[in-house]
Amino acid sequence: MFKNIKNDLPASVVVFFVALPLCLGIALASGAPLFSGVIAGIIGGIVVGALSGSKIGVSGPAAGLAAIVLTAIGTLGGYENFLVAVVLGGIIQIIFGILKAGVIGYYFPSSVIKGMLTGIGIIIILKQIPHFFGYDPDPEGDFAFFQVDGKNTFGEILDTVNNISPGATLIAIIGLSVLLLWDKILSKKGKFFQIIQGPLVAVVLGIVYFVLTKDNEVLEISAKHLVSVPIPEDTASFLAQFSFPNFKAITNPQVWITGFTIALVASLETLLCVEATDKLDPEKNVTPTNRELLAQGTGNIISGLIGGLPITQVIVRSSANIQSGGKTKLAAIIHGFLLLISVILIPTLLNKIPLSVLAAILFIVGFKLAKPALFVKMFKLGWKQFVPFIATVLGIVFTDLLIGIALGLAVGIVVILLKNYQNSHFLHIEDKSNGKHKIKMTLAEEVTFFNKGAILKELDSLPVDTYLELNILNTRYLDNDIIEILEDFSIKAKDRNIDIKLVSKRGVVENPSSYIEFFNERPKSDISLS
User: Cys-Cys crosslink for 334: which of 12, 300, 346, 449, Cβ 3.0 to 4.6 Å?
Assistant: First the structure.
């Protein structure tokens, strides 16, 4: 594991800088104690990182659960009661893993997963624009279109025009310039520039800038535009930041409902992220999904027991890890230890980091997820790939992650149905012979009720005086709905002087008297019936 430390250590530092404001922001958006987000980040890095089978996935508090947490804390009567639901959610996730429910992640189309990555990239950029210019009414980590401050993504951007902070904007531009210089030029100049990552340099410059300009009325950065980690006065006050579940609330049915909701949503987000992360991975590792559910469940149990938010694998942190060159799970684990050590030893220093510099880092992460070239590539693949892709992107940008994915999946299913409709059979029309049209219809390998419309339309359009050859030699599965269509058509065929020749592995049958009897009598090895 340690042979890749030269890659994993710099990557873990970048992930740490990305994760820290998101941990705090998601806690704020969830209506939970600020430190609860940091706890979830630490457990997600150290515990889940160690147990997971993913080499480059990073876990922590999830923006997609913020609305659930916010509602549940009020419904359940306090944060300590909510923590019981987090623990129960973790137990249920472990049960999901034992039951091998991780296979669900493989049933999402590639176009939807690519749309998810692109949509998240766009929403990262849009959400960071206000922070880049020093306008922070909406907390970091609120990725929904309709925000917790009552505004929406684009309304927030418009309001930024009248609330630009010169100091925050200046250091953000400097930070972004450093990041681009490092990424495009300096990283290719030598090992030093590969080990010392651009984001670390940008953050250090941000801290130096804050210290040097704090007495300058024009260029200073106000406290509200800095990272805000709780600062304990001593060991006792640090330990007091941990909360513990009130297990007396376990008899409340709402606690169980919330626990199951957390397990379901967290598992789905994790499986989607695993699938997306594996696609981004340059080495194309395949993450064992059932093991991932076991790891996430264990992480949520521990996080709930010590006062942390629910945990999932998170694409923002995972993609930052990949883009920064992370090779093994060590990067995720080290990032967890960096969170732990920093909030204990240097919280005052952390609180001098401008959010606008972190916004510049996230700009790069977002752009690499949503490159314009990907839109062109998906368009060239044809509408069957492009439509679910663009539906997912728009759904994520204008609603939230889960609704966007559900929309993309729904569109993908419609595309599949249309594809099945079109690919049920092949039709070959020959010239008239002996006074009849000769038409050969070859059915597909698998014909289901999805194909009813296409086949029914084709049969009804056959002209009078037709000789139809129905070829099922290569058909392995034939739905009973199709057999009933053929049975009904045989009656119409007599009235329209249509002769039917059925070609199968058992031979050729002219005008079968009953298709239902014919297919039901066929050997099981010949064709599979519904």
Answer: 12
Left, alpha or beta for 12 (phi > 0: left; psi -120 to 50: alpha)? alpha
**Higher per-residue pLDDT: 385 or 306:** 306
8 Å CB contact between 315 and 366? no
> In which residue are the tokens 């204008």 written?
398
Determine the average pLDDT of the residues in 98-123: 88
Q: What is the total residue count of the chain?
A: 530
Q: Which amino acid is at 457?
A: K
Angstrom CA distances, 372 to 80, 138, 366, 379, 404, stand at 45, 27, 12, 11, 20
Burial class (CB in 10 A: 0-12, 13-18, 19+), 216: exposed
HSE, CB side, 13 Å, CA atoms: give it for residue 469. Answer: 17
**Cα separation of 200 and 97, whole Å?**
37
Sign, CA torsion 241/329/302/67: positive
Least confident of 299-303, 360-364, 491-495: 491-495
**Do 316 and 365 meet the contact criterion of CB atoms below 8 Å apart?**
yes
pLDDT at 129 over 80: yes
Q: What is the residue whose two structure tokens read 């508090």?
A: 61
Q: In Å, how far are 35, 59, 140, 232, 297 from 241, measured between CA atoms?
A: 7, 21, 21, 8, 23
Query: Under DSSP, is residue 370 helix (H, G, I), strand (E, B) or coil?
Result: coil
Burial of 367 (0-12, 13-18, 19+ CB in 10 A): middle
DSSP 226: B
498-504/507-510 β-pairing: antiparallel
Q: Which of 330, 350, 320, 276 is nearest to 183 (CA)?
A: 320
- Both tokens of 371, joined, read 């490159």
Please, are residues 447 and 475 in contact by the beta-carbon 8 Å criterion? Answer: yes
502 alpha-carbon distance from chain centroid: 48
Separation between Cα atoms, residue 248 and residue 256, nearest integer Å: 13
* CA angle, residues 388, 392, 397, in degrees to nearest 5: 150
Cα gap 324→170, rounded to integer Å: 25
Q: Sorting pLDDT into bands at 50, 70 and 90, what band is 125? A: very high
pTM over 0.85: no
Q: How crowded is residue 515: how many other Cβ atoms within 10 Å of its Cβ?
A: 22
What six digits make up the tokens of 195?
């080990």
Q: Cα-flanking dihedrals φ and ψ of residue 477, to 5°? A: -135, 130
Amino acid in the structure at residue 401: L
**Enclosing H/E stretch for 115:** helix 110-132
* HSE, side-chain direction, 13 A CA sphere, residue 253: 0
